[in-house]
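Records of this kind hold a single protein each, on a pair of labelled lines. Below, a sample record shows both lines together.
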Amino acid sequence: MALIKSISGIRGTIGGKPGEGLSPIDVVTFAAAYGTWLKKKGHPSNSIVLGRDARISGEMVSSLVANTLIGLGWNVLDIGLSTTPTVELAVPWTKAAGGIIITASHNPAQWNALKLLNDRGEFISDQDGKDLLTIAENQDFDFADVMKLGKLTQDDSFLQQHVDHVLGLSWVNQPVIEKANFRVLVDAVNSTGGIVVPMLLKALGVQHVDVIFGEATGHFGHNPEPLPENLTEMISKMKGGNYDLGIVVDPDVDRLCFISEDGTPFGEEYTLVAVADYVLSVKPGNTVSNLSSTRALADVTRKAGGEYFAAAVGEVNVVTQMKAVNAIIGGEGNGGVIFPESHYGRDSLVGIGLFLTHLANKGIKASELRASYPAYVISKNKIELSADLNVDLILATVAEKYKNEQVNTIDGVKIDFPDRWVHLRKSNTEPIIRIYAEAFSEAEADTLAQQIIHVIEEIAQV
């Protein structure tokens, strides 16, 4: 059993004793804390939007959340099976005070979570999360009396509204996509992507769409994180040569990955790079990604005459930086595309519309598009340290050792060398330093990571 309470929400494995797993008591406690925190905000609306992915426990958790909020006096708009970006859009569309998405994103089926939104449909801030945790810890709830209970409204039209929204973006060219006559294979990992991605593709004019793991049962057909090692069936089918593009989403449809026509993974890091390349070709501007994302985005941005900015890891940090520098596009290297013309949240449907427009405009194969970008490789590693070591001091020492290079310390330590980089971040829950390195080859990235690991080991022994 596992239960993780953080400033971004609560997540855990279903079952177990209260406080040890995501039990009904924990769900109610955290939903009550959110509803109470939102009341204190004094928003004029008395409505909260609620949606969920298709995982097995979703209906149970959603019911608990809805009735807890009703018990606090909130009206709940339940949009049912949905996606994270759909709920994010629904909040401002309905002028609600906030929203909750019931999803554990790419985690396996035994996990579930509550993702919490503010009245803009964006993830709550660090300070808001801390305030909410305090309310939960103190159980500082004040439930409504019987004459002031909230009401439940159900509306399953928002997936279609989301599709219509994507088609309404001036950057998405439906006629060009339709004319390209793409043949597409979708892996929807048995969640809501199996409902909405085919809806979108049909609306975009893609006539030939096949779907694997398409039934939204929550019984994931493979590990739901959209990494190449988990996509063996799609990659095998793509190698058959019957498709122009493979599209992969995670259970809540905020991460987007592609497989090229020859079965080669396009690379989740390059989803944002390709979409940004298209957007920047129409309107040059600034871009943002987190410190652990590929340098290729910076290369593409500068080539287009824009400026690239790095943010601390975490969607809320990327969004904050995007607003600060008025970025035209941004996101995260895990396949997360954030396009402000739509909204400030990772959105696979928006990403699909932009990517297909780009591919159709180019008139080339997906593998050829991928080959047009700088070919970087990221090596992901971690080093475990004894609990008594001062991890912050170790990171500070590493930063000092490499002070003659370009060093960024807004989130751990990132060291930029002329042709490669390495990023060190400590875990918030255990004595671990995560070490990501990027270079032009896997061997070079691994060598750089091992070099830094050796430096850390030497420091730790002093």
Observations:
- The radius of gyration is 22 Å.
